[in-house]
Design goal:
373 residues; alpha/beta; Enolase-like, domain 1; TIM Barrel; 2 domains; four-stranded antiparallel beta sheet; 22% strand
């Protein structure tokens, strides 16, 4: 595979409903898409960096700059055999994992298209359907929170994850358990608590949560190990796990018993697969987290979720939960049983709607020259 050019697109998509976490409220997304042009074929990737450096130290504007000036030029004209070649080509640039993932994942997509095979199979996937859960943001009132949960359960989703923060936790969990004592329920703190809150967090054991996701510092797994030793509920690590070395260290420290793999957070499919394999070797289940992706990123998350150790319902939900109109067809749908059927066509199995992308594009740049550094 030899890439002739890479085109960057910034699109802007309003969310169907505001999404609130402990970071704040998101009402729309600025999204960086990368388009690879190679051998008469086009492949796409999506950078999941947000509008602000709140979830990670990346944001769309830094990702755009580093992709245009440092990353994309290193792939132009290079003879690539596989998406696995990309990390080594980009390793001189430290960090910027979300920007790197957009390019690497697009190369995997390109490889699958040129080989006329499903991306899921190329990644090593074994499932023809994936189980789906939902992540529900903090609502204006507890009553609205209950209404939102009712809506998602009626849609068939197999796991409910509630965003939480100090002041919006125990009383919500109690309300949910009184109404739905047996649903698969988890929470996500996005690093909103500290070890001094351990006694409070320990009271959540009564709610029989599947997991508590990233309760402490975003860059920590040492103190998470102390917290895990004090509570019965499994801790799930998200932001802390940037690569396979983090996963290995966290599992040996017993910092948690579940890992959320977000392919953008860890730098691409190659590292995501490595983390999946390390977790499997420790008998630790993984699941695929979401980053408010458009259909391009969502389709690639579906492919990743087919790997065998993705044994818990992920956050890969239907397009219509987020977008009035997605940029792929068909749009991602979830069955009444809470499952997504994995497409059998080449690549991700979804068609990218170029006309829709062009309509939403507010910035565009074409890179066709090699790195001169």
């Amino acid at each position: 595979m030899k890439i002739d050019a890479i085109v960057l697109h910034e699109i802007q998509m309003p969310l169907m409903h505001p999404f609130q976490t402990s970071f704040g409220i998101t009402t729309g997304r600025r999204i960086l898409l990368v388009e690879l042009q190679a051998e008469g074929t086009t492949a796409w990737g999506e950078c999941v960096a947000g509008e602000h450096p709140y979830f990670s130290d990346e944001m769309i504007d830094t990702a755009w700059h580093i992709t245009a000036t440092e990353l994309a030029p290193r792939l132009i004209g290079v003879d690539l055999e596989s998406g696995r070649d990309v990390p080594d080509l980009l390793k001189q640039v430290r960090g910027h994992r979300m920007a790197k993932a957009a390019l690497e994942n697009a190369v995997w997509e390109l490889e699958a298209l040129l080989k006329n095979m499903p991306l899921a199979k190329l990644l090593g996937g074994t499932r023809d359907k994936i189980a789906c859960g939902v992540s529900i943001g903090i609502q204006p009132t507890p009553e609205k929170q209950m209404e939102k949960i009712e809506t998602e359960l009626s849609a068939g989703y197999q796991r409910i994850k509630l965003k939480c923060k100090p002041g919006w936790d125990s009383h919500i969990f109690e309300m949910v358990r009184k109404r739905w004592p047996n649903i698969l329920l988890s929470c996500d703190a996005n690093s909103a608590y500290r070890l001094s809150d351990a006694d409070h967090i320990a009271t959540w054991d009564q709610f029989k949560l599947l997991m508590i996701e990233q309760p402490l510092w975003y860059d920590d797994f040492y103190f998470h190990a102390q917290l895990q030793a004090r509570i019965q509920t499994a801790i799930c690590l998200d932001e802390s796990i940037r690569n396979r070395r983090d996963a290995q260290a966290a599992l040996e420290l017993k910092s948690g018993r579940i890992i959320n793999i977000k392919v953008g957070r860890v730098g691409g499919f190659t590292e995501a697969i490595a983390i999946h394999d390390i977790a499997a070797s420790h008998a630790v289940p993984v699941w695929c987290g979401g980053m408010l992706e458009s259909g391009i990123g969502r389709a690639q998350n579906i492919a990743l979720s087919t790997l065998p150790n993705f044994s818990l319902p992920g956050d890969v939900s239907a397009s219509k939960r987020y977008w009035a109109e997605d940029i792929i067809e068909p749009q991602v749908t979830v069955s009444p049983e809470g499952e997504i059927t994995v497409p059998l066509g080449p690549g991700s199995g979804f068609k990218v709607l170029r006309d829709r992308i062009e309509k939403l594009t507010v910035r565009k740049e074409r890179i066709s020259t090699t790195f001169q550094g």
